[in-house]
Amino acid sequence: MQFGIFSVGDVTPDPTTGRTPTERERIKAMVAIALKAEEVGLDVFATGEHHNPPFVPSSPTTMLGYIAARTERLLLSTSTTLITTNDPVKIAEDYAMLQHLADGRVDLMMGRGNTGPVYPWFGQDIRQGINLAIENYALLHRLWREDVVDWEGRFRTPLQGFTSTPRPLDGVPPFVWHGSIRSPEIAEQAAYYGDGFFHNNIFWPADHTKRMVELYRSRYAHYGHGSPEQAIVGLGGQVFMRKNSQDAVREFRPYFDVAPVYGHGPSLEEFTAQTPLTVGSPQQVIEKTLSFRDYAGDYQRQLFLMDHAGLPLKTVLEQLDLLGEEVVPVLRKEFAKNRPAGVPEAPTHASLLGAARKGADADREGART
């Protein structure tokens, strides 16, 4: 199982000081957080993609390429790549380039984003969001798997004899997660292709997450990719920790109360009771995260949102120390207990390459017989 962090890259004033970081400071902070993630033993760093204030990560591959050059084992991902407003040809080429530069330490999460105005900025219609996600990914999927592509669809100019470059590393495309909070069509899409399904799992109650994950698992089996238990699932989560739970609540409350994503609504206590947000001690984070398995089953990836709501970099790095030293080692051990043998590990470039070679060997053996 993989553990890591994801960032939306928001530039938010610190409510305790009134200071807003500059865009440069926030970008550099995201890099520092990624480097810290590797230092404390986490597996994944994922960045969002936004094209509007107050967010800074408009070019995920630029940031991830820079981080790749400064890390050795950290898996680099997105949260999310906008499959609706990006040209699938550009996605194919940008992420294949990143895959080569990072020696395969790359996967990505497809999503529609949460900012409506981005659609017309890139010449698209938000009312076509689901259709764009379906058609654009169908093309991207082919671009990574076919050397020469002829294509005609509704939303972009036709392609004739087109080859995207560079080709995927070792002929193996980056693994794709399809991220969604509320759209069953996206869970269906992930199942159809046998890709991963990532449920953000930060705003919604457990019963909603359970329904979405179960839909994906059942449709994954329907399309013949394996049993429901073999489907590839990822979850998000939000945490804030201190050694003493009362200290965590006291310190985080002013950030929660005015945070753009959930401030001015339910109280901190109501929100933590109804959603996966955990504010407390490391042990409380461990217990609540382990409870995700009760409704999502045995899954492959757990990402935490930690650098949001105006929290200063120093505080976020302290959180990562606690996560790496006191939380994730326990979670690794506990999630491994009683994990059925048939549940696959999280995909990596090495595992995907091994499966591709095994399949090729089986095809050659079949041809001989």
TrEMBL record:
<dbReference type="InterPro" id="IPR050766">
    <property type="entry name" value="Bact_Lucif_Oxidored"/>
</dbReference>
<keyword id="KW-0560">Oxidoreductase</keyword>
<feature type="compositionally biased region" description="Low complexity">
    <location>
        <begin position="9"/>
        <end position="20"/>
    </location>
</feature>
<dbReference type="Pfam" id="PF00296">
    <property type="entry name" value="Bac_luciferase"/>
</dbReference>
<feature type="region of interest" description="Disordered">
    <location>
        <begin position="1"/>
        <end position="21"/>
    </location>
</feature>
<dbReference type="InterPro" id="IPR023934">
    <property type="entry name" value="LLM_FMN-dep_put"/>
</dbReference>
<feature type="domain" description="Luciferase-like">
    <location>
        <begin position="1"/>
        <end position="294"/>
    </location>
</feature>
<dbReference type="InterPro" id="IPR011251">
    <property type="entry name" value="Luciferase-like_dom"/>
</dbReference>
<dbReference type="InterPro" id="IPR036661">
    <property type="entry name" value="Luciferase-like_sf"/>
</dbReference>
<keyword id="KW-0503">Monooxygenase</keyword>
<protein>
    <submittedName>
        <fullName>LLM class flavin-dependent oxidoreductase</fullName>
    </submittedName>
</protein>
<feature type="region of interest" description="Disordered">
    <location>
        <begin position="340"/>
        <end position="369"/>
    </location>
</feature>
<feature type="compositionally biased region" description="Basic and acidic residues">
    <location>
        <begin position="358"/>
        <end position="369"/>
    </location>
</feature>
